[in-house]
Design a protein that fits this description.
Length: about 350
């Protein structure tokens, strides 16, 4: 990548004029989830959402925090991290808008491959079967590896290019496709049309003089399926929880509800009912020791504070057995204590 590209972190936003031409090829069957894992400032996906069916929801991932902050003004959900660290529900997005960095990706062992290929492989799992891919890449990366990766995951592929002027900058092309219900097992399963499209893509990669249809030049359209459960939340989080996400998780956590019940004082959740018969002294002592009658009692000068408690008392006896060996016996018993605090400050423990 050139120095100016490194400074931008590979950020080259899709021109709004070309997004408008892409929209010419998309129909929306209903509200859908729209996903851009390289969202930038959110303008392209925001433009896509504005033309989608009402109720559609946008999801963006952006590595640069400054751009992610701007994207939050355009999109419904934004996380500021690399897509590798994001947590997204598999097969949850009806449309993937993918304009990845144009660069080499260095993996394990120093092996290098195109970032466009890596992004496509890693992120296609987020697309539902029959979901739509809008893939923006330079013409010169449409080699055999990338085309094969597309064929393995998508069908109904078509290739277009940016209009003159915009195309001259990075030679960008757009691949539309529909997510396969199952991965392609072998190229013997390809249809003649799919073979022809794949051969055309590879040929365009090898020969820049070959013609490519311009976006919006025909009426071929891809139908973006509606999300059957658009109102149900999906997992879409960054690498680290922020405060808002933590509060949301706690509010819906079954474990937190159980812990809250365990930690909440019993007297706050229960109400002592009036007995059928008057309490005897033993009953009163048991209630006070259990904490059910803690509080101020009495009237006037006899008013005092009562706190009930139960303590475990351990007593130890040391004896000898028949052989004269020392035997230690520990006995446990629970003792009920009623502590009173008198008006004059005296503290009395009653057992």
């Amino acid at each position: 990548m050139r120095f100016e590209g490194i400074a931008k972190a590979g950020f080259y936003p899709t021109p709004a004029s070309q997004v408008a031409r892409m929209l010419h090829h998309l129909d929306f069957e209903g509200p859908a989830r729209l996903f851009d894992p390289c969202a930038g400032e959110g303008l392209a996906l925001g433009q896509l959402q504005a033309s989608a069916a009402p109720g559609s929801v946008s999801y963006g991932i952006e590595l640069d925090k400054a751009r992610a902050g701007k994207a939050q003004a355009c999109l419904d959900h934004v996380v500021a991290c690399g897509y590798e660290s994001a947590r997204v529900t598999p097969a949850s997005m009806q449309c993937l808008f993918l304009n990845p960095p144009y660069d080499q990706h260095h993996g394990q062992g120093g092996l290098a491959s195109r970032s466009e290929l890596v992004f496509l492989r890693d992120l296609s799992k987020c697309v539902v079967p029959n979901g739509i891919l809008v893939f923006v890449v330079p013409r010169y990366v449409l080699g055999k590896d990338l085309v094969q990766a597309l064929l393995n995951r998508y069908t109904d592929l078509s290739l277009y290019r940016f209009e003159d002027g915009a195309y001259d900058v990075f030679s960008q092309v757009v691949v539309f496709g529909r997510r396969r219900e199952k991965l392609l097992q072998t190229n013997r399963d390809l249809t003649p049309t799919e073979r022809q499209v794949a051969n055309n893509m590879v040929a365009v990669h090898q020969d820049a003089s070959l013609p490519i249809p311009i976006l919006g030049s025909d009426d071929t359209r891809w139908r973006v399926p509606a999300a059957p459960n658009i109102d149900e939340p999906i997992l879409f989080r960054g690498a680290l929880l922020d405060e808002a996400e933590l509060l949301q998780d706690l509010a819906t956590s079954d474990v937190f509800c159980i812990a809250e019940n365990l930690l909440t004082v019993a007297s706050d959740r229960t109400e002592l009912k009036r007995p059928l018969l008057p309490f005897r002294r033993t009953h009163m002592a048991t209630l006070i020791a259990a904490g059910a009658l803690d509080g101020a009692m009495g009237i006037g000068e006899t008013r005092h504070w009562v706190v009930g408690m139960t303590r475990k008392r351990v007593s130890r006896d040391i004896t000898e057995d028949e052989r004269g060996n020392e035997v230690v016996v520990d006995s446990e018993e629970y003792v009920t204590i009623v502590r009173t605090v008198e008006a004059d400050g005296r503290i009395l423990d009653l057992q």
